[in-house]
Design a protein that fits this description.
mainly beta; 17-stranded mixed beta sheet; 3-stranded mixed beta sheet
């Protein structure tokens, strides 16, 4: 199964979610495996060995955030422009595996007998029950994990899991791959989870990185024709502002021009 979320408008505060024609999802045997609850997709808990797990994929487009509750009770908040692959049931499974392309916040249901594993393009995160954020957009060329609660074990996707060699991080720590090495540093958790409440929070971030988040948040395309502007760094918070209001605020800090055509914005030097 592949599920797509369809939007009626590109601006987040005016978006209306349309998901599936029915509020229930049934398998080929006409058994309800999931249902929609106030913009949240909740999977049924199977305690039947006869149920054969099926792989599902949920794709969330730019401009939308969506919540998912897996069959084991794990809650996942999926950010704009992301996709998550997972089984509709983890019953009887030794591992709970999901594959993420994009960004998601996980609140994993505890199960010491069945580790929960998040796989990205270049990193695997292994937990038993905890809260953490994973960001792994392919166009960002970077994967990072920020831990809010508990502990997680991390190793490269290209390596076989070894509990003695994998890296364990603690709350308020971030781990990412730099020059093929896993690097850990202390961080402020708010910056990395503020997106869940529809808040854009930047702290000394490069403008080219900020623009990528603006594109996903507002469902638009932005092109920067200025190498100097790309490297400028900014700190700030946005909540209810429109994309034009956001750009005008940046213009006050660094002079530039921008043109809008349809859903595309081009930024140039003055």
């Amino acid at each position: 199964f592949i599920f797509y979320l369809l939007l009626c408008h590109s601006v987040p505060k005016k978006n209306k979610l349309k998901i599936f024609r029915s509020k229930e999802i049934k398998n080929k045997d006409n058994i309800v495996i999931a249902h929609l609850e106030n913009d949240k997709l909740v999977y049924a808990k199977f305690n039947d060995t006869k149920h054969k797990a099926t792989n599902h994929e949920l794709k969330v487009p730019n401009g939308k955030i969506f919540k998912l509750v897996l069959s084991d009770g794990t809650s996942v908040t999926i950010n704009s422009g992301s996709s998550l692959k997972y089984d509709d049931s983890f019953y009887g499974s030794e591992k709970r595996n999901v594959f993420l392309d994009g960004e998601a916040y996980f609140d994993v249901a505890k199960n010491k007998k069945s580790p929960f594993i998040v796989q990205t393009n270049n990193m695997k995160i292994r937990v038993l029950g905890t809260k953490f954020n994973v960001s792994s957009y392919l166009n960002d060329n970077n994967t990072s994990v920020v831990l809010e609660e508990g502990s997680v074990s991390v190793h490269k996707t290209s390596e076989v899991y070894d509990p003695e060699k994998s890296v364990v991080i603690k709350p308020n720590q971030k781990i990412e791959i730099k020059k093929e090495e896993l690097v850990i540093k202390e961080v402020s958790i708010d910056k990395y989870v503020s997106w869940k409440s529809r808040k854009l929070l930047f702290k000394n971030d490069k403008f080219e990185d900020i623009v990528k988040k603006l594109e996903r948040y507002y469902n638009i395309s932005i092109k920067i024709n200025s190498s100097q502007l790309k490297n400028n760094r900014y700190t700030g918070t946005f909540t209810t502002e429109t994309i034009l209001e956001v750009l005008d605020i940046f213009k006050e800090l660094s002079e530039f021009n921008y043109k809008i055509k349809d859903n595309n914005i081009t930024i140039t030097d003055t």
